[in-house]
Amino acid sequence: MLQKIFDEIISDYYFIDNETLLMYRRGHNKFLPVKWQIGKYGLSVPLQIYRDETCGRNRTRNTGFSYIVGKYIFNIQEPFILEYDINNLNINNIKIKYLSDISTNWKPVIMNDNFLISENGLLYNRKYCIIQEPNIDISGYRFFCINGRRINRSHLVWKTFNNTFEIPEGYVIDHINNIVYDDRIENLQCITIRENIVKEIHRDLPNGIHKIKNIYKVYIGYKIKEKTYNNVYLGSFTNIDEAVACREKAIDLINKGINPIKYSKNEHIKYKFSNDTWYFTIPQIKGADKLYDNYKTYEQAEIAFNKYRILDTSLETDEERIVRKGYFSFQTAITTFKVNKGKYANDIFIKAYQYYKKCKETNNVNEFIEKLPLIKKQIRDENKKIKENLKNKEKEQKLEAKRRYQERRNIEKQEKQKTIEEARLNFVCKSNYTTDKKGYYIMKIPYRDGKWYYLHSFLCLDIVKEIDNIMNEYKYSDDFIEKFKDFKENELPKYVERDTAYKAEKENTLKGKRGYKWFNPRNCWRVIKRVNNKEYSLGYFKDERCCKMILDEAVNAIKLGVFNEWYNHIEDHRFRIKKLFNDESLPENKTYEANSTVFQKGLCVCQYKNDKLIGNYKTISEASSQFNSNSASKSIGECCRGIKKSYMGYTWKYEKE
Fold first, then answer.
1. Own/partner pairs, 366-373, CB within 8 angstroms, 24+ separation
2. How far apart are CA 177 and CA 183, in angstroms?
3. Entry pTM
4. Would the pLDDT of 598 be above 60?
């Protein structure tokens, strides 16, 4: 049976078959078929339904399959979408979905009324009656092309639901959970460019892992067999290490050419990669959808789904149905009315629906429409009462928490007072000084609130002992605080002056020392030599002459290029030098064995000219002092080792006297 469509058409008449859904147009005494075309927005057909008044001709416009079938066959008035099989067009194979079932909040796009957008970012095309899929750029952001211009989906949702045409200058639309494709209105915020940069810098999560509250969600994008998969969800974890391991496991499978995500024929049955199981959900009359998971194979999940897929709604009452949906609507000759359920007003919402049914039975819907503002006010008042009760409970909880906090503070004050008294009692005749990392003596005094305060840092131990004795004498007096203040103002500067003089005297003794310095922990001199950016400890000595001698030997070993061999027997050198100068740090019960053949006693540098001995020198530096050249010591050392034959007309050898 053919049904006429587009009564407002100008030239031709178009018809559609109610059963086969094929299109025809009226020709000369016969019907001519019009072919459906498959395009970006599904099936469409070109029809001459537009009259161009400028030239007086009819223009062809593509019209969507869903628009024609929904309006002229099913007579649907509110926004909808149709689900159909392109290869098997039949009136019995078409499913109808209303936009109100998909999302409760839809608004027309500001820049073009032919589109509706939901608070979740779904874009509805009125011309083709479809949910339009967004495009994806290289950064993962979703965008649409409207009026020949690109606009990000996040910007479109923000502008539409905030009723604005532009974003303020210097501001950007940011995703709160850092997921670029999550364009829900509650996930969007308008912040400055600086705030957005600071937020991005402080993001220390690995790539593909996003944190929402205390949960880590894992996503991945990949390409297998010339097919690209963007932002594939892998699972949610409470531990960052488990999330990283899950993503690495998926990457290993992709590198082997295996798709980590398995797909099923049934859209309700889905695969869970995190634990390699299948699951499905069943909608409930009240509350959230029920989840059935942990099926090892797809066949097991399919069998379980077939058992539960038929939801028994025959016993569901009208009141239960509207509570589950959250709204009820009715249509009049003028417009469509919709009453939404309040968050806490189920009872009043059901009473309003029952009152509407009574008015409908008596054909007096206008009475219900007149009282509709009053009914909505009752729902709002009920919500306010519940919210006020919640606020009162929160206030009571805060007062209780404040009272407990005050009790804890009082207990802490009492304990603190006890510690002050204990600190005064524990300040007895014992040493109250110690040393810091730099070797300075630090005097600690219990003062006022029981805390320990640094009195001063001294270098002279005698001064510290004097002050410690004075403090111990004050401890028995009741006016300890007053005496301590008086000592700090009048007597302490004298001790500080003495200590500064002691420090200056000690600094003068350290002047001119090269290669060794005073080491307080051991109370002796420490010798260090730096060779090739590496420090070598040559020993600890009481006598400065030991420091100078071992440094001279180290310098000669470096010049001769045998420092490593010399340093291997550093303990023998230390013992020999300490024994030579009777150093106090000489270890007991140790005999000296000369293992080094290079620096044995009697070894010297000999100077020859024409095989005639001219002079003997104890060190190379002594031999090189007769030449005004910076390279003399190096050249003489090379001659002694046989690298060079002569220097300045002389031959040099290292021999015994």
1. 369/332, 369/337, 372/337, 372/339
2. 10
3. 0.34
4. no
Is residue 275 scored above 80 in pLDDT?
Answer: yes
Are the C-beta atoms of 578 and 593 separated by less than 8 Å? Answer: no
545-550 long-range contacts, CB within 8 A, separation 24+? 545/581, 546/577, 546/578, 546/580, 546/581, 546/583, 547/513, 547/515, 547/516, 549/577, 549/580, 549/581, 550/574, 550/577
Q: Rounded to whole angstroms, how far apart are CA atoms 465 and 431?
A: 8
DSSP for 414-443, written as a single string: HHHHHHHHHHHHH--SS--EEE-TTS-EEE
Tens-place pLDDT, residues 494-546: 888 888 888 777 766 665 456 788 888 888 888 988 888 888 989 889 888 89
| Residue length of the chain | 657
Tokens of residue 230, six digits: 């963007």
For the beta sheet containing 42-52, the strands, ordered from the edge strand earlier in sequence to the opposite edge, are 37-39, 42-52, 57-64
> Which residue, 46, 50, 106, 95, is CA-closest to 70?
95
**First-residue to last-residue Cα distance in the chain:** 132
State the residue for tokens 């400055």: 192
Exposed/middle/buried for residue 79 (C-beta within 10 Å: 0-12, 13-18, 19+): middle
Task: Give residue 147's identity as a one-letter amino acid code.
Answer: N
Count of beta carbons in the 10 Å neighbourhood of residue 58? 16
Q: Please tell me the distance from the alpha carbon of residue 528 to that of residue 539, in angstroms, as a whole number.
A: 8
Q: Are 24 and 34 contacting, i.e. CB atoms less than 8 angstroms apart?
A: yes
HSE at residue 638, side-chain half, CA atoms within 13 A, is 10
pLDDT tens digit sequence for 378-421: 667 777 787 888 888 888 988 998 999 999 888 888 887 777 66
How many other β-carbons are positioned within 10 Å of the β-carbon of residue 30? 7
The enclosing H or E element of 512 equals none
d(CA 383, CA 470): 75
Element (H, E) at 17: strand 14-17
- Residue 88 CA to residue 19 CA, distance in Å, equals 12
Q: Rounded to an integer, what distance in angstroms lies between the CA atom of residue 459 and that of residue 457?
A: 7
Q: HSE (CB half, 13 Å, CA atoms) of 530?
A: 4
Amino acid identity at 521: P
Q: What b/e string do you get for 195-212 counting C-beta neighbours within 10 Å, with b at 16 or more?
A: ebeeeeeeeeeeebbbee
**H helical segments located in 163-214:** 193-201
Asked whether the CA dihedral 400, 403, 409, 411 is positive or negative, the reply is negative
Tokens for 337, please give them: 């009315």
3-class DSSP state of 211 = strand
Look up residue 647 and give its DSSP letter.
Answer: B
Domains in the chain, ordered, with CATH? 1-102 (3.90.75), 433-510 (no CATH), 512-597 (no CATH), 602-657 (1.10.10)
Distances (CA, A) of 440 to 449, 521, 523: 26, 11, 13
- Which 3 state secondary structure label does DSSP give 524? strand
Hey, how many other C-beta atoms are within 10 angstroms of the C-beta on 132?
17
Cα(385)–Cα(651) distance, integer angstroms: 111
Which residue, 415, 333, 347, is CA-closest to 381?
347
Residue 228, phi then psi, degrees to nearest 5:
-100, 135
